[in-house]
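Q: Got a minute? One more chain.
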Amino acid sequence: MTGERFEREIREQPEVWRRIAASSKAEELARAIGSGPVCLAGSGSSLFVAQLGALALRRRGIAASALAATEARFDREAYRNGCVIALSQSGRSSDLLAALDVLTPSTTVALTNVADSPLAARATLAIDVAAGPETAVPASKSVTAMAAILLWSAALIAGHRNRTAATLRETAHDVASWFSSDGLRDADEAARLLARCRAVAIVGAGYSVPVAYELALKMKEASYVHAEGFPAGEFRHGSSAMLDKSCALIGILDATSRDIVERPMREAEAAGARRFVIGEALGELPLLGPQTGEAFNTLAWLVTGQALALFTGRAAGVDSDTPRGLTKFLA
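A: Always. Here it is, folded:
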């Protein structure tokens, strides 16, 4: 069966979150961030996690921004000599290390899955996300581990009590239970339809925007199906014209983003596009993924997208462990 390593690593994530819940990693990061400002830098999946973390910090009043490592030399003046949180699964990303050279941060916090990596060696504080070996090219465990630590840290900085060790363990339980439920079969059936689509659009609002970007990347990596993520409101300003019967639209929604995401999902019916939702139910549209509490629902959304990408790849005959043209630093 193709994608065996990718599937194994997807399924290992609840145990990774339980280890984080039992650790002080979020507290360490919260102390390092303090009152900000802070720049979060990364590439690929790490960039989208950086965007998620920056949004969580801004919601708590911290001046935070996300920067693509490959763009640092064009967009560096505002970030020089500040605090940079550098995100990298392997800690060996040449793009990220080069970004630190031009940003010259006064404080560097590394979020990485390799404790003895070059990134960790350069950091003022290195936090090992401890996701364990990740050998499939599409990142999974390291993505949600970094996201969990960042989201929990933001809550700690603001003194909020919604994200705790207990709520992270509850999310781990909910996702682990989904892996052995009929819900996983529903995702597999949806993926068989996605594999026949010309293009897939994924829309969200708020926290689900960077998640939409990440899920689109996973779909492209693991299945070669063209996919793009969009803010749901902006999707309606031009990009919705791409939809027809050969396309699919996936909406990621929760209580705070429902009204924004619902509109393009409803309007897409006229185009005949296949429609699915992640997060919360929307009418009769197929609801995919585990149901969990609000505190760490983004982790459940990410896992759902990973599973969809895996199953879409299998339906398309793609080995998602080793997508063409891509390599990975192993951790």
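A: The chain has a mean pLDDT of 96.
Q: Perfect, thanks.
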